[in-house]
Amino acid sequence: MTGWRSIDCGTSDIRWEGMNLWEVDSDYTQTGLNKLVQKETSRDEFNNLRFFPNNTQDNCYIVPAETQTIRYTIRAGFYYGNYDGLSSPPTFNLFINDLKWTIINTSKNNGEPFYEEIMYENNGSGFFTICLEEIKDGGVPFINLLEAVVLWDKMYSQMESNAIYNLVTRTNLGGEEISGSTDVTATYENYPPKFVLRNSVESNGSDPIILTVDLPQLTPQSTYFVFYITELVEKNSNESRTMKIKIDGEDQGTVETPNNGKTSVITKYPV
User: Fold this and answer.
1) N or C: which end of the chain has fewer CB within 10 A?
2) Residues 113, 182, 216, 271: what is their CA dihedral angle, to the nearest 10 degrees?
């Protein structure tokens, strides 16, 4: 199925995780070598990788996609795990369809597993080309996993078709980090698991809630914010709660919280 694909890079066996099939990556790339990490994690797909020591080759994955123009979430996972015994996490470039996706610094996140995720609209060619490129003195590129999921056409509806959107953060405020699937048929732009919507942060009286987002320090760019506001307090029929949203001091409007147990989705773009 081209609509949902999970590729476990560097393994030789397929694996089922619930209803999700993790495929081997040998059908999608002709270069690189398989390796196990020395320091294992609890996530099986991060315990092996494919590394690419030959920088004279095009070290790429050819990933099947829908033949019509459609938006995807594409996620690449990285975990060094000292697989080469050198204690030297590499830095390298990541490309999609000849466009630079990002620079991968595998020492980020304190050396723990991490993802790079984008929203990307394919060109109807029927495949993505995802390439890893060595940079000078950066070390040998590697990758642990690739995932591609078709997005329902109403999700992130304000996104422009000619742009790549990099995920900077997805934060469960008031709760723990959660790894879970997304309901891609839902009416919300990005439907979180229900137990995420049961958590919240609340202001102390009239004090504001201040959230910090560390954006990449690159050329001028627009940011796409999606806020999920769930009313967890029982209100009387004549009661209401409103809040004002400001981003970098700029007024983004006032919203009224929904009825008890309901969730409002507020999108702010471009910011």
Assistant:
1) N
2) -170
The whole-number pLDDT of residue 1 equals: 44
The two tokens of residue 243 are 């809040």
Distances (CA, A) of 153 to 137, 142, 224, 240, 263: 42, 32, 17, 33, 21
Other residues' Cβ atoms within 10 Å of the Cβ of residue 53: 14
**pLDDT tens figures, 35-51:** 999 999 999 999 999 99
Q: pLDDT tens digit string along 67-91?
A: 887 888 899 999 999 999 999 999 9
Write down the pTM of the prediction.
0.76
Q: Which of 97, 90, 93 is nearest to 111 (CA)?
A: 90
C-alpha angle 16/72/127, rounded to 5°? 80
Bridging pattern class, strands 4-8 and 20-24: parallel
Spatial distance between the Cα atoms of 226 and 119, rounded to a whole number of angstroms: 14
What is the distance between the alpha carbons of residues 70 and 14, in angstroms, rounded to a whole number? 27
Which class for 212: exposed (0-12), middle (13-18), buried (19 or more C-beta within 10 A)? exposed
Structure tokens of 13?
A: 């066996």
> How far is the C-alpha of 4 from the C-alpha of 75, rounded, in Å?
12
Asked if 100 and 167 touch (Cβ cutoff 8 Å), the reply is no
**Residues written for the chain:** 271
Whether cis (ω within 30° of 0) applies to the bond prior to 141 is no
